[in-house]
């Protein structure tokens, strides 16, 4: 643990009367907005309420110590008083409560108290607790990358800005809290963690959540981490501590964690009743320590304010809240059709002709593998755009730079990133901890600040710790913030089986898990050429992309291609007819494409059946026009995919074909996929489980004969 920074930059005693009265006003304003929302909820004029009651003192102190629109903020749902102190207005908060179209937090898309304000650098908050912590670390890391990457001409950094992130005591039980502390301390990032400890996570008390009952005692050995503990019900002491902690962070000495002890005089939310689990004595004790009771009495006792001045502030606040509520209730609701806006970027469309240079490749060199062309694409794109950073597990050539001259370099388990660190330096290509949520969460924060992370999840089988970040954060950020924030991250991940020995945990598929998520683009190339074009589109587009790289296809000879040049792109949602035919259609992707081609050739040679094979390439969006055109020509269709047959990706393709192409179908839509089991290690098991050429040929014959 770091020692306190000396000398103190400003003591809390320097607060003027005006400062102290304004702190009280903001604290009271926060409480009165909570009370107004509770009233409106009981009148069925709003639909949810969760308060910041009891947390006001330390949050107003934080707002006074920090700099709106200069620092960056990742608050949580109790942080109403912070947001007011930074400049958010009561009207803006109540617009959120009523779900108004002009709500600057989300345009009526999120629940109340899910703060977000572009002009104030308050990054849109989501409901899952703790997911914001890693994003805040990534946001702070953006300062580090901008500072160190000389090739970036325009650097949107201040030099001493910090990133504030807050959480309740219950959230410190989340693994991502510890991952965030680990990386922030390891990289000495300018992050100010505020833990608002009201002793309860809904109904679960702190001693059940935290070993020893004090999170600040547990984190004191993180190197470079300044740890402070404070009575968060005292705004003056809290200001002193937060100012000291923020100065420590601004001086780039490392992160700081302030553990503030606060109360929670109201239930967790209006969906909760604390009487059910808090005894009367405990609730009475909390009431005696309520900052809204203690602070005005102190101001009067210390001669800072008179009773008349306190009463005047109360009247002013009540009037302000009343006017704000009237304005919010009179504000228009969002038009229903606006729900479809901002799922994806409204400015950059990766399905457009702008991204279609497929017909004009500039080939050079001998045909080479998918691994090599992916590597070449990354090199071209990193040379083109210095904002691109590449990180993940084992992606660097070597973490200890002094060894670069003496070793060949790792460059990823499959060598896709080999040589990137040597060419572009360790500030742009670097290893992460073995923590998938850490990789994606940090990438979201980096992208929010304008960098372009292209990160690697080493195996699809191990992507699941990051799913929370992918589904609830990355995919939703643009939509939930009503286009105020975006995070165009590219997540490269190896995928699939046919490995001979891959077994359960190195053969997984499951594209449907991501294609079912609005806001994500999902692609799965089957050839080296397509991999090059699609990766370039993924990097240049403005949406989050899950880029599935099939391990079996990395070094196959049949899918080699020469380098198509540094501007070769394939738009998303453009399938490819890889074999023309007239008798039936196979819709497929990934490693099943080549098997379908082999089976189709066999059918034509043996049975005279002409099979058309479509490689989707892009799984979301899908080229429905190409599918429809083929099905209306052949009148029979087989959907072939590597996922398990039941509930897999092909089920939606088959269902939509049956729905939209029914008048042209001469047979039921048929599917070939993996068995509804896991992939086995023994080769005979693997061959039985995964779709083989003979399975595809048999299905084609049966379909043709129908």
What features would you describe in this structure?
With about 700 residues, the protein is an alpha/beta fold. The chain contains 24 helices and 21 strands. Strands 10-9-11-12-14-13-19 form a seven-stranded mixed β-sheet, with helices on both faces. A five-stranded parallel β-sheet has the order 1-2-3-7-6, sandwiched between helices. It is elongated and about 100 Å long. The model is unreliable at about 1-10 (pLDDT under 50).
Average pLDDT for all residues: 96
Radius of gyration: 29 Å
Distance N terminus to C terminus?
A: 74 Å
The helix tally amounts to 24
Structural class: alpha/beta
Low-confidence stretches: 1-11
- General form: elongated
Main pleated sheet:
7 strands, mixed
The percent range for strand residues is: 5-15%
Helicity level? 25-40%
Strand order of the largest sheet: 10-9-11-12-14-13-19
């Amino acid at each position: 643990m770091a020692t306190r920074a000396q000398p103190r930059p400003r003591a809390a005693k320097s607060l003027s009367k005006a400062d102290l009265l304004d702190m009280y006003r903001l604290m009271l304003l926060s409480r009165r907005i909570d009370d107004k929302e509770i009233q409106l909820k009981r009148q069925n004029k709003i639909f949810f309420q969760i308060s910041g009651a009891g947390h006001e003192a330390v949050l107003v102190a934080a707002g006074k110590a920090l700099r709106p629109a200069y620092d960056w903020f990742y608050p949580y749902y109790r942080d109403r008083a912070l947001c007011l102190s930074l400049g958010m207005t009561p009207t803006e908060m109540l617009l959120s409560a009523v779900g108004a179209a002009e709500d600057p937090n989300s345009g009526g898309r999120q629940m109340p108290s899910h703060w977000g304000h572009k002009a104030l650098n308050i990054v849109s908050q989501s409901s899952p607790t703790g997911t914001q912590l890693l994003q805040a670390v990534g946001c702070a890391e953006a300062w580090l990358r901008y500072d160190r990457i000389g090739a970036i001409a325009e650097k949107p950094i201040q030099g001493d800005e910090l990133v504030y992130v807050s959480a309740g005591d219950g959230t410190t039980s989340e693994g991502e809290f510890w991952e965030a502390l680990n990386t922030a301390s390891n990289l000495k990032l300018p992050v100010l963690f505020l833990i608002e400890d009201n002793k309860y996570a809904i109904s679960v008390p702190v001693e059940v959540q935290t070993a020893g009952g004090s999170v600040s005692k547990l984190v004191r050995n993180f190197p470079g981490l300044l740890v402070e503990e404070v009575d968060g019900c005292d705004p003056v002491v809290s200001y002193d501590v937060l100012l000291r902690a923020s100065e420590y962070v601004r001086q780039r000495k490392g992160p700081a964690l302030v553990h503030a002890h606060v109360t929670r005089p109201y239930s967790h939310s209006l969906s909760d009743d604390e009487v059910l689990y808090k005894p009367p004595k405990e609730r009475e004790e909390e009431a005696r320590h309520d900052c809204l009771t203690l602070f005005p009495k102190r101001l009067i006792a210390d001669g800072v304010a008179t009773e008349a001045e306190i009463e005047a502030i109360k009247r002013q606040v009540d009037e302000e809240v009343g006017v704000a509520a009237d304005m919010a209730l009179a504000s228009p609701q969002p038009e229903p059709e606006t729900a479809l806006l901002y799922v994806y970027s409204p400015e950059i469309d990766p399905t457009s002709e702008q991204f279609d240079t497929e017909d004009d490749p500039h080939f050079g060199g001998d045909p080479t593998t998918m691994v090599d062309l992916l590597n070449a694409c990354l090199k071209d794109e990193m040379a083109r755009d210095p904002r691109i950073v590449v990180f993940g597990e084992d992606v660097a050539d070597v973490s200890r730079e002094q060894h670069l001259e003496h070793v060949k370099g790792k460059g990823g388990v499959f060598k896709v990133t080999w040589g990137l660190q040597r060419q572009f330096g360790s500030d742009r290509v670097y290893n992460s901890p073995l923590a998938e949520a850490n990789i994606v969460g940090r990438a979201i924060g980096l992208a929010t600040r304008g960098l372009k992370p292209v990160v690697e999840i080493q195996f699809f089988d191990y992507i699941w710790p990051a799913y929370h970040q992918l589904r609830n954060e990355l995919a939703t950020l643009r939509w939930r913030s009503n286009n105020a924030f975006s995070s165009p991250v590219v997540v490269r991940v190896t995928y699939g089986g046919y490995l001979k020995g891959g077994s359960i945990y190195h053969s997984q598929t499951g594209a449907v898990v991501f294609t079912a998520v609005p806001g994500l683009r999902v692609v799965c190339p089957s050839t080296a050429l397509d991999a090059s074009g699609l990766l370039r589109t993924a990097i240049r587009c403005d949406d989050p992309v899950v880029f599935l790289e099939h391990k079996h296809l990395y070094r196959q000879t049949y899918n080699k291609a020469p380098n198509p040049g540094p501007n070769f792109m394939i738009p998303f949602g453009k399938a490819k007819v890889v074999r023309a035919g007239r008798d039936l259609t196979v819709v497929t992707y990934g490693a099943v494409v080549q098997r379908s081609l082999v089976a189709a050739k066999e059918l034509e040679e043996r049975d005279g059946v002409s099979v058309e094979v479509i490689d989707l390439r892009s799984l979301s969006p899908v080229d429905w026009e190409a599918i429809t055109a083929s099905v209306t020509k052949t009148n029979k269709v087989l959907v072939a995919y590597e996922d398990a047959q039941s509930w897999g990706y092909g089920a939606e393709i088959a269902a939509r074909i049956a729905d939209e192409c029914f008048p042209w179908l001469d047979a039921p839509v048929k599917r070939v996929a993996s068995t509804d089991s896991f992939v086995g290690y023994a080769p005979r098991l693997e061959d039985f489980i995964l779709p083989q050429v003979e399975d595809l040929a048999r299905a084609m014959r049966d379909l043709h004969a129908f």
